[in-house]
Amino acid sequence: MKLASIHRYPVKSTSGHTVARAEVEPWGLAGDRRFLVVDGDGAMLTARKLPRLLACVPELDGDALVLTGPHAPPLRVLPAAAPRTTVRVWRNDVELTDCGDEPAAWLSSLLDRPARLVWLDDPTRRPVNPDYGRADDRVSLADAYPLLLTTTASLSRLDDWIAETAAERGEEPPAPLDMRRFRPSVVVDGVRTPFDEDSWKRIRIGEVDFRVVKGCDRCVLPTVDPVTHVSGKEPTRTLARHRRWDGKVWFGVNLIPDARGTIAQGDPVTVL
């Protein structure tokens, strides 16, 4: 097995981009999900309810964040010391730093509603769910855990199931799903059995070891096309037929790194 691709999302719930190599830190890939968009009242905004967020394409340029979108020229943001605000990030209250009025105006224009950009200046503030992690495990602004792993074999099987669902309903066969719908951190190729990752407990990517702490229960976001931002029924409709338990649908597994290190596209992946 090998590492097929690495994906980084500098701003939570916006578009991501692939990188050839990445530094692994205890709380996730370096530069991953350190920024967040909030509304005028300081509440977290996500593409689950605002798919327009996916039109924002953030990239890192040294210490700066560059925001690109269809509505305005690119904006360069250099985070600095500023007043902090408390934001509820799912089950955690997290102290985040406001990035100022210029990115707020840029994002408000994109979303056609008041919005501000905030930054996690200290990534050690937020613990993972203690039911699945250790007391000192931390996560940036990802939903729950530092990394998400998916496999091409599982996506191929899901595509087959979706085609079967469409045929049963007399619908046109859909195009294969874009893996970006699932917002993985790392994608593994060469897995012989689809969904074999469900049984993994520890893996090594390159020279970095990870704990596989739990499967990933999926929200509505995979039903949003990452290019058109239009919502549909798949893959949730078909996952509910084949991958539903505990009242949820599942695709991918969550990882917690056991050490710092560098991973690169093409690295071997070993189940430990």
UniProtKB/TrEMBL annotation:
Transmembrane segments: none annotated. Coiled coil: none annotated. Residues 115-272 form the MOSC domain. PANTHER family: MITOCHONDRIAL AMIDOXIME REDUCING COMPONENT 1, MOLYBDOPTERIN COFACTOR SULFURASE MOSC. This is MOSC domain-containing protein. It comes from Nonomuraea indica.
